[in-house]
């Protein structure tokens, strides 16, 4: 997976490049919006990490240009400003996620992986989370290459969690995913299916309970 | 100002009206007394006309129509007929004899009748059948008062009504006249420190328009300096955070590369120190930005506390998992008027503290929900808690609990307390359920309730 880093600060750019490369990404780095446009015009990337505070044209302008050109490349914004206005700006303009400096490298890598996975699930039918593979078309799951025997409702919950892996999925959303037209299910039903899924998934992929909110599917760090 | 104006107007006006009251009384009283005396004199003359000689004396022989006529005056006059030497010829002996030195035909005086009742008396010297006689006619003053009272009462009532009306008009007038000033005062008072829009100069009385003008100039300067501070803080944030981010990430890599080397621990220690520095820088920037935002109304919006709490739980989940703390939420939707990013900072600081001070295996719960007049936000942990006597001190800037572990900047609760004050909210630190741990609670008042307070 290839990532373009758009960052003018040498120290930050170098650390990002090394850090992301260490987790298995192919990384290119440019120092300005103009160079970024040139790189995007000639090469294929899976994701761009864009700093807002670039010299001359800033990162937000770059994101706007990328989107206006019809490019749906996932973009992770980095910023040293942390106001809500910036965040709304960035997401409104078409950025996909947002991180405030200073950041921790594992966090950056996790966000990159999640963004790429989400974009891919829209185009390809397969979803990989650690040892788990979901085929969205045939609605089947494999764990470490072995078919995983899940019921229809278990599959719905697993799909919901996997599509948002690394993020908290609200219990209400999972309930809606399994509730049919003609039946009333209590939130307890979700708990029952989640605990059955946990038993089937074993140690490879963790479904965390977030008390009062919902669940989060975590892939093990590489 | 209104009080001073009223004092200046009402005290002299009241005095003036009291004088008028006295004057009216005298004006009515004087002529009435004269009229009554004249009528008493008339009665004496009429009675004298019916004096008839009897042997060696004389007597009053009033025919019934005259008696009736005299009685219409209110009281039957009491009379005494004496000769020049003062010997009683007819009538009532209790009436005093005329003072000898008075030469007038009619002589008026005040006297007292039996049992000391005040009375008015007239002596009439006349000559009947060649004899000099003196007729005394008296009338109790009470009878007169009965007759004059309605007139005096009417006059004085009118005066008092006038007094009341004048006072009322002055009160209304002064209040009306000062209303623009009062409205101006209320407008200023109802503004929070963050509303820096200019005041409307046309809505105030001409006399204070220049004052409002200079006030507006001052507001404009404050506004400009708030904007300048914002920009400065934003620039400072960028200039501070970028190198910090670079150094922190480089040290992270260095620590990884040095995994097997003896310097690894030292790299780790430097990284921890840098992390603390970054945290403090962030806290200081937050304090500075909060002060800048405090002056600008446009930063405020409707914020759902439940959403912020969910975000905060999501954001801190990994740290909680790492420390094996059960982090959870009990969030019920509740909207407050607030600066969203500041509330995020507030919650972040409270959760940070809770996660820092709660030992492994503990429970941290974030709560929010509506109140009858507002909303609340709560972060509760089952850590060691804060002793009641230490609670006020933990709110001070750079204060840190003596046994505080690692990373705190000592600014967390100071930031919380600033943000709480900025939103007109209330902050409370108490023990958690069952007296264990700490419960930090923020109560927001609804805008309407806040305006009333």
Brief digest:
Chain A has helices at residues 10-22, 33-42, 59-68, 84-92, 105-123, 152-163, 171-178, 187-201, and strands at 2-6, 26-30, 47-51, 75-79, 97-100, 126-129, 132-135, 140-143, 146-148, 168-170, 206-210, 214-218. With 222 residues, chain A is of the alpha/beta class.
Number of DSSP helices of chain A? 8
**Poorly predicted tracts of residues of chain A:** none
* CATH secondary-structure class of the largest domain in chain A: Alpha Beta
Query: Which segments of chain B are poorly predicted (pLDDT under 50) over 5 or more consecutive residues?
Result: none
CATH level-4 homologous superfamily of the largest domain in chain A: Response regulator
Strand order of the largest sheet of chain A: 2-1-3-4-5
| Count of domains of chain A | 2
Characterize the overall form of chain B.
rod-shaped
Instruction: Using the coordinates shown, work out and report the CATH topology of the largest domain in chain B.
Output: Heat Shock Protein 90
CATH homologous superfamily designation of the largest domain in chain B: Histidine kinase-like ATPase, C-terminal domain
What's the helix count of chain B? 10
Describe this structure in words.
The complex is a heterodimer of chains A (222) and B (453). With 222 residues, chain A is of the alpha/beta class. Chain A folds into 2 domains: 2-123, Rossmann fold; 126-218, Arc Repressor Mutant, subunit A. Chain A contains 8 helices and 12 strands. Chain A has helices at 10-22, 33-42, 59-68, 84-92, 105-123, 152-163, 171-178, 187-201, and strands at 2-6, 26-30, 47-51, 75-79, 97-100, 126-129, 132-135, 140-143, 146-148, 168-170, 206-210, 214-218. In chain A, the strands form 3 sheets. Chain A has a 5-stranded parallel sheet with strand order 2-1-3-4-5, with helices on both faces. A 4-stranded antiparallel sheet of chain A has the order 6-7-8-9. In chain A, strands 10-12-11 form a 3-stranded antiparallel sheet. The longest helix of chain A is centred in the middle third of the chain and has 19 residues, at 105-123. Chain A is elongated. The mean pLDDT of chain A is 87. Chain B is an alpha+beta fold. Chain B folds into 3 domains: 2-147, PhoQ sensor domain (Beta-Lactamase), CATH 3.30.450.140; 193-298; 300-453, Histidine kinase-like ATPase, C-terminal domain (Heat Shock Protein 90, 2-Layer Sandwich), CATH 3.30.565. In chain B, 53% of the residues lie in helices and 20% in strands. Chain B has 10 helices and 14 strands. In chain B, the strands form 4 sheets. A 5-stranded antiparallel sheet of chain B has the order 4-3-7-6-5. A 5-stranded mixed sheet of chain B has the order 9-11-12-14-13. In chain B, a hairpin with a 2-residue loop joins strand 1 (51-54) and strand 2 (57-60). In chain B, helix 4 packs antiparallel against helix 5 and helix 5 (264-293) runs parallel beside helix 9 (412-422). Classes of the chains: A alpha/beta (222), B alpha+beta (453). The A-B interface holds A 9-12, 14-16, 18-19, 22, 53, 80-84, 100-105, 167-168, 170, 208, 210-213, 216 and B 234, 237-250, 252-253, 256, 278, 282, 289, 310, 313-314, 317, 321, 326-331, 340-341, 344, 365-366.
């Amino acid at each position: 997976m290839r990532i373009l880093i758009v960052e003018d600060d040498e120290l930050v750019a170098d650390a990002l490049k090394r850090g992301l490369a260490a987790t298995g990404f192919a990384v290119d780095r440019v120092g300005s919006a103009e160079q970024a446009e040139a790189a995007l015009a000639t090469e294929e990337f899976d994701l761009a990490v864009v700093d807002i505070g670039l010299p001359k044209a800033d990162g937000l302008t770059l994101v706007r240009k990328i989107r206006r050109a019809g490019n749906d490349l996932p973009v992770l914004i980095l910023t040293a400003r942390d106001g809500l206005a910036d965040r709304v700006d960035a997401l409104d303009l078409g950025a996909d996620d947002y991180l405030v400096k200073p950041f921790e490298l594992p966090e950056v890598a996790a966000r990159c992986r999640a963004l790429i996975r989400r974009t891919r699930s829209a185009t390809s039918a397969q979803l990989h989370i650690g040892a788990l593979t979901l085929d969205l078309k045939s609605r089947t799951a494999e764990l470490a290459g072995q078919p995983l025997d899940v019921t229809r409702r278990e599959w719905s919950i697993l799909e919901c969690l996997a599509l948002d892996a690394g993020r908290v999925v609200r219990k209400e959303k999972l309930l809606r995913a399994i509730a049919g037209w003609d039946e009333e299910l209590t939130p307890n039903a979700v708990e029952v299916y989640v605990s059955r899924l946990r038993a089937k998934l074993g140690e490879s992929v963790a479904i965390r309970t977030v008390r009062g909110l919902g669940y989060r599917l975590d892939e093990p760090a590489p | 100002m209104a009080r001073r104006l009223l004092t200046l107007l009402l005290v002299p006006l009241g005095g003036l009206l009291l004088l008028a009251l006295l004057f009216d009384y005298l004006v009515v009283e004087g002529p009435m007394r004269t009229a009554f005396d004249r009528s008493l004199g008339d009665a004496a003359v009429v009675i004298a006309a019916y004096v008839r000689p009897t042997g060696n004396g004389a007597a009053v022989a009033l025919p019934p129509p005259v008696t009736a006529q005299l009685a219409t005056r209110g009281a039957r006059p009491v009379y005494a007929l004496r000769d020049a030497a003062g010997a009683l010829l007819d009538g009532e002996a209790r009436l005093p004899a005329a003072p000898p030195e008075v030469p007038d035909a009619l002589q008026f005086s005040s006297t007292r009748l039996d049992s000391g009742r005040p009375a008015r008396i007239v002596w009439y010297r006349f000559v009947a059948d060649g004899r000099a006689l003196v007729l005394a006619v008296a009338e109790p003053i009470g009878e007169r008062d009965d007759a004059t009272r309605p007139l005096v009462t009417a006059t004085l009532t009118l005066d008092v009504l006038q007094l009341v009306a004048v006072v009322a008009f002055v009160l209304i007038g002064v209040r009306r006249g000062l209303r623009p000033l009062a409205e101006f005062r209320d407008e200023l008072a109802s503004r929070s420190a963050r509303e820096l829009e200019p005041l409307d100069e046309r809505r105030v009385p001409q006399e204070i328009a220049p004052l409002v003008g200079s006030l507006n100039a001052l507001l404009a300067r404050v506004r400009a300096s708030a904007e300048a501070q914002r920009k400065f803080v934003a620039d400072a944030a960028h200039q501070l955070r970028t190198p910090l981010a670079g150094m922190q990430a480089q040290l992270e890599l260095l620590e990884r590369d040095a995994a097997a080397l003896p310097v690894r621990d030292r790299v780790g220690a430097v990284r921890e120190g840098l992390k603390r520095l970054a945290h403090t820088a962030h806290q200081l920037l937050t304090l500075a930005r909060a002060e800048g935002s405090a002056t600008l109304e446009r930063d405020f919006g409707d914020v759902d506390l439940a959403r912020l709490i969910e975000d905060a739980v999501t954001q801190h989940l990994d740290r909680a998992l790492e420390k094996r703390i059960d982090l959870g939420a009990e969030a019920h939707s509740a909207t407050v008027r607030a600066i969203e990013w500041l509330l995020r900072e507030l919650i972040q600081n409270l959760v940070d503290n809770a996660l820092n001070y709660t030992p492994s295996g503990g429970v941290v719960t974030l709560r929010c929900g509506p109140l009858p007049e507002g909303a609340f936000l709560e972060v509760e942990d089952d850590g060691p808690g804060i002793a009641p006597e230490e609670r006020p001190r933990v709110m001070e800037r750079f204060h840190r609990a003596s046994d505080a572990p690692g990373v705190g900047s000592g600014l967390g609760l100071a930031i919380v307390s600033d943000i709480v004050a900025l939103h007109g909210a209330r902050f409370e630190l108490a023990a958690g359920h069952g007296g264990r741990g700490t419960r930090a609670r923020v109560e927001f008042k609804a805008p309407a309730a806040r305006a009333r307070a």
